[in-house]
Structure formats: structure tokens, C-alpha cells
């Protein structure tokens, strides 16, 4: 994809007044961006290319906005964890923003009930017009194994999982095309720095626009979160998604080698194993190209049409995944929206959804080692929890 103009436009939209590249305003924690002359992530401290206002914009924070319950960090001027009242070092807005909340990425004192989350997940399900129909996708799940057999590393399925995918129809839809453009921008090995060209960065923006602004699934998620006071404007919502999903952090050796998007949608290799990898389209593409061998499944959801949920055992080019769960046959905007909903409303917890009248739980994890904005946490992982 080749859209330099789009990048220039989107940069201007996301960072009004700072497109000369000199300010960290709105850029804290985001991955190295070569279209700027200075950077705003922790790596800039090592490379010596931080913007002049990096410390002010990104490090010193005197508010608990977005920081409730964060881990103690002596770099901060004041604190927002449950021990700060005892140590008398809370930020002045701690009691109004954090008291009584469990903390998490959205901060604030918004209460969102399980029943409300279930209702909105049913709505997202009913609005997923871009999902695969039974004539567009055929899977062959073959051998079902018990939980105790998931570690056996045996190929118990002679056929591929995906028998047929109508790529012409599905992959030409704008959200699938935007998703595919981002999916191949990653190096799967942890410990190897991710670098993005300006074109690849613009693909991230395009993916967010196509999935979250241009679909009913995305608009429903935003209006729900807005009604709960989590975001006041659509651009706050898109910007926060961009940071939590695409902002880089380090899983190994101090390198900016990972992000929530890479981990969950593209998959990574860490300590000789597959880590993350919870998307059906990535699974299909790698299986089709001969790089992935489906072994068995240990979970098959109760759904009789797409999307369905499977927990799969597979080998990815020499690396094993014991249970890679994924929502099968949904659109890219659907699993992105569900994972975002759960991460934003139930960070680090089990999030209970209702999908077509059936229960589905999504487990998310926060990344605790680095942060963006005023101490907000990146997504470490999110996936369907298979009982
Ligand atoms: C990525 O960036 C790192 C650090 O700046 C550099 O050492 C490496 O060569 C780059 N890799 C690619 C593929 O450009
Ligand atoms: C997290 O940060 C600590 C302290 O900076 C470091 O020792 C540790 O290796 C980091 N963990 C990961 C997974 O990067
Ligand atoms: C982050 O911290 C929470 C609370 O201590 C913990 O439960 C969670 O597992 C941590 N996340 C990761 C990715 O380790």
C-alpha cells in the first residue's frame, strides 16, 4: 500500500500543532516513528533522540488520569496506587479519580456492569455484517483432544483446519484489506526491534479508521464507551486504541520488539514457543502457505454458524502452540472490538460476554513494564478463554 499523503494527513489529525515533529504532545510511549525528527518512547532515552519536551510531556505527571492502580514508579512525582494514602504521596486528584475503582486502562470511576458488557457484546455480534457465511468459509476441525493431551505435540489431524476460504469476497472488504496490510509488518521473534516505514504506520491508521470509524461494530463500541464516560470524543477513542494496540514495548532484551496487535493478531516466538496468536485469518494464511501445521483442537464452542471459537494445537514453522484460541470466521473489526471492549472495561481480568445467546469469556492482560500517556498500560494479551 502506498499512501504517503494519507500519513501526512493523519499525522496532522492526530497531532495538531505538533506536525513539525518537535513535540511529544500526544505521542508518549508510541513506537519509533521515522517521520519525526525526535522520539517519545523509553528507547529515546537510550538513543538520545528524545524530543525536548519528552520529560515534561511523558514522564512527570501530576494527575491520576488513566493511572489508577498503576505500579509504584519512583520516576513519578506523585502516585495513584492503593498504598499512596498511607505514604501520603498520592496525586491531588487521586481520591476523585481512583478511590474505590480497581484501576485499569480507562481509569476514572465509571462503573460498567457485567450485564451491560453482555448487552453490548450481543449488539456487536448482531452488527458483524462482514463476518464469513457458511458458504464463504469451511473448516475441518478433525481430532478433539482433552486438556491433558494438549502438550503432546502430536499431529492428530491429517488435513488442514481451513478447507475453503472465499478470499475474493472476504479479503476485498475494506476492513479485511486494511487488516491484511498491517498483519505482515511484524518480525515474529521477540528480542528483535520492530521498525515501521511511514507507509506501515499509515496502514495502522487506516486499519483503525476502517474498522472503528467506518463500521457499525466500531461505532457501536465507541458509543457504548462514550455513554459510560470512558471517552468523550471519537478521536480520543481512536487515539487511545492506537496507543494501547500499536505502541511498542519490550518483551526481551530491552528491544522495542512487541505490541498488543503483534502479539494477539500476528503471533510471536518467545523462548522457543509460539506466544500469543489468536486470529483466524493469520492462521489461515500461514496454513495455506505451508508454514503452519494444524495438530488438533481442545475446545470447540457451541456456535453452529460463524463466528465460532476454537482452541487449537499447532506447529508454526518449528514452534509449537499448546492452546491457541481464536474466534473463527468473524470480521477483523469484530475480534478487535471484543478484545478492546474487554481490555478497556475489565483490564487484566476475565470478561464475560454473550454472543448469540451463548457465554464467551475473554481474558486480557495488561503490560506492566512500560506505559503511555499518564501511566496507561499497553495490551499484553487478549484471547477467548476456553474452559
Ligand atoms: C531496526 O532498527 C534497529 C534499531 O534502530 C536497527 O538496528 C535494525 O537494523 C533495524 N532493522 C531493520 C530491518 O531495518
Ligand atoms: C521489566 O522491567 C524490569 C525492570 O526494568 C526488567 O528487569 C525486566 O527484565 C522487564 N521485564 C521484561 C519482560 O521486559
Ligand atoms: C500485570 O500485573 C498484574 C497485577 O500484578 C498481573 O496479574 C498480570 O499478570 C501482569 N501482566 C503480565 C503480562 O505479566
TrEMBL record:
Q: What EC designation does it have?
A: 4.6.1.-
**EC class of this enzyme?**
lyase
SUPFAM superfamilies, alphabetized: EndoU-like, Somatomedin B domain
Q: Where is the signal peptide?
A: 1-21
Essential cofactor(s): Mn(2+)
Q: Which GO terms describe its molecular function?
A: hydrolase activity; lyase activity; metal ion binding; polysaccharide binding; RNA binding; RNA endonuclease activity; scavenger receptor activity
Q: Which domain of life is it from?
A: Eukaryota
Any Gene Ontology biological process: immune response
Q: Name one GO cellular component term.
A: extracellular region
The family note in this entry says: Belongs to the ENDOU family.
* The protein's name in its UniProt record: Uridylate-specific endoribonuclease
Q: Which organism is it from?
A: Salarias fasciatus
Amino acid at each position: 500500500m502506498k499512501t504517503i499523503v494519507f500519513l501526512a494527513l493523519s499525522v496532522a489529525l492526530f497531532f495538531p500543532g505538533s506536525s513539525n515533529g518537535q513535540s511529544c504532545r500526544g505521542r508518549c510511549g508510541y513506537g519509533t516513528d521515522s517521520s519525526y525528527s525526535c522520539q517519545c518512547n523509553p528507547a529515546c532515552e537510550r538513543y538520545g533522540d528524545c524530543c525536548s519536551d519528552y520529560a515534561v510531556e511523558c514522564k512527570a505527571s501530576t494527575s491520576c488520569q488513566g493511572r489508577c492502580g498503576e505500579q509504584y514508579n519512583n520516576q513519578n512525582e506523585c502516585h495513584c496506587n492503593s498504598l499512596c494514602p498511607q505514604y501520603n504521596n498520592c496525586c491531588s486528584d487521586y481520591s476523585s479519580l481512583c478511590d474505590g475503582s480497581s484501576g485499569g486502562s480507562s481509569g476514572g470511576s465509571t462503573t460498567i456492569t457485567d450485564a451491560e458488557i453482555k448487552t453490548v457484546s450481543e449488539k456487536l455480534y448482531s452488527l458483524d455484517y462482514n463476518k464469513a457465511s457458511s458458504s464463504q468459509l469451511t473448516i475441518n476441525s478433525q481430532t478433539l483432544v482433552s486438556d491433558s493431551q494438549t502438550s503432546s505435540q502430536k499431529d492428530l489431524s491429517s488435513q488442514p483446519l481451513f478447507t475453503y476460504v472465499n478470499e475474493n469476497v472476504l479479503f476485498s472488504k475494506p476492513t479485511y484489506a486494511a487488516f491484511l496490510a498491517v498483519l505482515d509488518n511484524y518480525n515474529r521473534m521477540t528480542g528483535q526491534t520492530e521498525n515501521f516505514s511511514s507507509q506501515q504506520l499509515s496502514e495502522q491508521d487506516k486499519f483503525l479508521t476502517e474498522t472503528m470509524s467506518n463500521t457499525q461494530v466500531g461505532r457501536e463500541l465507541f458509543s457504548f464507551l462514550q455513554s459510560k464516560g470512558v471517552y468523550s470524543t471519537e478521536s480520543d477513542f481512536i487515539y487511545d486504541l492506537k496507543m494501547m494496540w500499536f505502541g511498542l514495548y519490550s518483551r526481551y532484551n530491552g528491544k522495542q520488539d512487541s505490541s498488543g496487535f503483534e502479539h494477539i493478531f500476528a503471533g510471536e516466538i518467545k523462548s522457543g514457543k509460539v506466544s500469543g496468536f489468536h486470529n483466524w485469518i493469520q492462521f489461515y494464511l500461514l496454513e495455506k502457505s505451508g508454514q503452519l501445521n494444524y495438530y488438533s483442537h481442545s475446545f470447540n464452542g457451541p456456535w453452529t454458524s460463524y463466528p465460532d471459537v476454537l482452541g487449537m494445537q499447532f506447529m508454526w514453522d518449528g514452534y509449537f502452540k499448546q492452546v491457541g484460541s481464536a474466534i473463527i470466521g468473524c470480521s477483523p473489526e469484530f475480534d478487535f472490538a471484543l478484545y478492546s471492549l474487554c481490555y478497556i472495561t475489565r483490564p487484566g481480568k476475565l470478561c464475560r460476554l454473550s454472543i448469540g445467546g451463548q457465554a464467551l469469556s475473554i481474558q486480557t492482560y495488561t503490560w506492566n513494564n512500560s506505559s503511555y500517556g499518564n501511566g496507561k498500560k499497553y495490551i499484553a494479551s487478549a484471547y477467548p478463554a476456553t474452559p
